[in-house]
Amino acid sequence: MRSAAKGLTAILSIITVGAALSLPTSAVYAGDDGNSKNVTEDEIVRALAPAPKKPLTRGLSIGPQTEPAPNAAETKLLQSVRGRSTRSLSSTEREEIASVAKDKPNIDLEITFDYNSANISAKSMSSVQALGRALTSPDLKGSTFVVAGHTDAAGGEAYNQDLSERRADSIKRYLVEKYSISATDLVTVGYGKSKLKNPSQPLAEVNRRVQVVNMENKTTASK
């Protein structure tokens, strides 16, 4: 009788352990407390807002003072790529965009994607939503933004270039559909694995990201 009881106890223990192993575990996503990569709308607005312009002062010369004219080359480049499809950009145009963008207000949101996919990861969705709210805020609405897709170093050049373009398109599509941002105000570009954020760990998740750059501000220029 005692041996039978021990056998029953052992069976129940095995059932209990098996049930515990089969229970789903909860994941921690961006937006949960403790995730330092989660960004807020205000943080994005501050990062992308253009620097305040210096007030015009009276000088010794006679006549009205005017602000410096926009860089003609930058304006020409921006106009040439606005409204273009991501895949239509040449490698030269991509590098020209990167050169201009480096001096513009920008933010790396570390928006990540599922492995080998253009699907926005669940843990990054709150950051994408914060981006949508920021780009439609009074401080940024009307600007032209570059949305640049990046991959990690896994895979070949052509594959990663295509993947980065699809990732940029994925963010643009979400912003246009969910926040009614004009498609022509979002210039999408892909850089594949050519601009890793963490070169020392080429396969790290942080390399699968999207960067956002404020290229031109039309709404706040006169403020």
Description:
This protein is of the alpha+beta class and 223 residues long. It has a domain at 70-214: OmpA-like domain (60s Ribosomal Protein L30, Chain: A), CATH 3.30.1330. 38% of the residues lie in helices and 9% in strands. The protein is built from six helices and four strands. The chain has helices at residues 2-22, 41-48, 72-81, 91-101, 125-135, 157-179, and strands spanning 106-108, 144-149, 186-190, 210-216. It has a four-stranded mixed beta sheet with strand order 1-4-2-3. α2 (41-48) packs across α5 (125-135), α3 (72-81) crosses α4 and α5 packs across α6. The longest helix is centred in the C-terminal third of the chain and has 23 residues, at 157-179. The radius of gyration is 24 Å and the shape is globular.
